[in-house]
């Protein structure tokens, strides 16, 4: 069973992602911000990390950078906010820029909120296959 760490400051997002991933067979831990997520990552092994970008105390960019200082082996998926669906071209471009920056800092993949379960599972599957585990849940 793959152990996934979900880092997001929104309790509803954390709860729904935990429930969805557990229903797919994953062992899921959650954290409310980058500091909390990094503390958990230091205490226990994870097969995959999913992190939001905009969070208090430690944002997703800094979290990715610090995770990459600790390991290159664990895939990191970075989520953006929902501005990709905004009508404003500037907001959409800002989301794309943030996702590109996350990849530059070491994110394995990125995904825009809101996303479907199938979209997230596809990205997770790709990351785990690249890592060599190739298994969901």
Explain what you see:
Helix 2 packs parallel to helix 3. The protein is built from five helices and five strands, in the order βαβαβαβαβα. A five-stranded parallel sheet has the order 2-1-3-4-5, with helices on both faces. By secondary structure, the chain is α/β, with parallel strands linked by helices. The protein has helices at 11-23, 34-43, 60-70, 89-105, 117-131; strands at residues 3-7, 27-31, 48-52, 76-80, 109-112. It has a single domain (3-131), classed as 3-Layer(aba) Sandwich (Rossmann fold), CATH 3.40.50.2300.
Secondary-structure map:
Blueprint: E1 3-7, H1 11-23, E2 27-31, H2 34-43, E3 48-52, H3 60-70, E4 76-80, H4 89-105, E5 109-112, H5 117-131
Parallel strand pairs: 1-2, 1-3, 3-4, 4-5
Helix pairs in contact: 2-3
Write a brief structural summary.
The chain has 137 residues and is of the alpha/beta class. It has 5 helices and 5 strands, in the order E-H-E-H-E-H-E-H-E-H.
Radius of gyration: 14 Å
In this structure, how is the largest beta sheet organized? 5 strands, parallel
Task: Write out the strand line-up for the largest beta sheet, numbering strands in chain order.
Answer: 2-1-3-4-5
How many domains make up the 3D coordinates? 1
Helix- and strand-based class?
alpha/beta
Cα distance, first to last residue?
Answer: 5 Å
Helix content: 40-55%
CATH fold topology: Rossmann fold
Number of helices: 5
- Name the CATH architecture: 3-Layer(aba) Sandwich
How many strand units? Answer: 5
Order of helices and strands: EHEHEHEHEH
Top CATH class: Alpha Beta
Which stretches of 5+ consecutive residues score pLDDT under 50?
none
Average pLDDT, rounded to a whole number, is 90
Quote the beta fraction: 15-25%
């Amino acid at each position: 069973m793959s152990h996934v760490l979900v880092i997001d400051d929104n309790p509803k997002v954390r709860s729904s992602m935990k429930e969805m991933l557990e229903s797919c067979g994953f062992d899921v831990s959650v954290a409310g911000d980058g500091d909390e997520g990094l503390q958990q990552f230091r205490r226990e092994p994870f097969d995959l990390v999913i992190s939001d970008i905009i969070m208090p105390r430690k944002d997703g960019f800094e979290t990715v950078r610090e995770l990459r200082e600790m390991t290159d082996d664990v895939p990191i998926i970075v989520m953006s906010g929902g501005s990709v669906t905004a009508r404003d071209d500037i907001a959409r471009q800002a989301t794309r820029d943030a996702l590109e920056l996350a990849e530059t800092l070491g994110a394995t993949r990125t995904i825009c909120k809101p996303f479907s379960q199938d979209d997230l599972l596809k990205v997770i599957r790709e990351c785990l296959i690249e890592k060599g585990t190739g298994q969901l849940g």
